[in-house]
């Protein structure tokens, strides 16, 4: 381009225009540069409230006689019984009995509790015979809770019932909880929950403890300290290993 003398002329330099990226190249470029729109889940803290009472003692302490609800508990509220120092070592039972009931008379795998009065026990075995049979009746502020659904449909026979289902799987640890029922009503702050219980299941002979638990649930389940404790131990172990490697690096540099 010449601007001398007021004239304007154009000089070609032979340069060519650079073609733009295609749509496919643009998408790949955005992907490699992590510019694509994305979403990720954000974990939020979940709150679980529990009421735990131990009742296997001769005289129930005063603080356990009229426990109040300290935080609002939204339905459904699950009822558990907890056993401590209880080892479920015996797995004697008959799966055929659980599947076919009275249609199966083979009780050889259930000894020594395979029959009663020359008739097969259904379900048979030590697992079914050690069925937890304490019963609970709940009331709130002197009025009976109408919407309590116990998982117990026994009719007094040896056939079993809905309460047998959670008791059959053996617990891996001596302290465990099994589901008893649920409450389909919200509990408010300062509500007094009165439990009338029938102490049928004896744990005195082996020093066991029985507790009644009322708990809400989150999407992660009930209250469980294992995950938090495990994370603390793993974090402490990683810090310890890091310190060891740091000292080794300082002592023996490359």
Write the layout of secondary structure elements.
Layout: H1 23-32, E1 50-54, E2 77-84, H2 95-100, E3 115-116, E4 119-120, H3 126-129, E5 135-140, E6 143-144, E7 148-150, H4 164-167, E8 176-183, E9 193-198, E10 209-215, H5 226-251
Antiparallel strand pairs: 1-10, 2-8, 2-10, 3-4, 5-6, 5-9, 7-8
Note down, in words, how this protein is organized.
By secondary structure, the protein is α+β, with helices and mostly antiparallel strands. Among the domains are: 50-89 and 133-218, no CATH class; 91-129, no CATH class. It is 20% helix and 19% strand. The protein contains 5 helices and 10 strands. It has helices at 23-32, 95-100, 126-129, 164-167, 226-251, and strands at residues 50-54, 77-84, 115-116, 119-120, 135-140, 143-144, 148-150, 176-183, 193-198, 209-215. The strands form 3 sheets. The protein has a 5-stranded antiparallel β-sheet with strand order 1-10-2-8-7, with no helix packed on it. A 3-stranded antiparallel β-sheet has the order 6-5-9, with no helix packed on it. A hairpin with a 2-residue loop joins strand 3 and strand 4. It starts with 22 loop residues before the first helix and ends with a helix. Mean pLDDT is 72; it is low at 1-13 and 149-160.
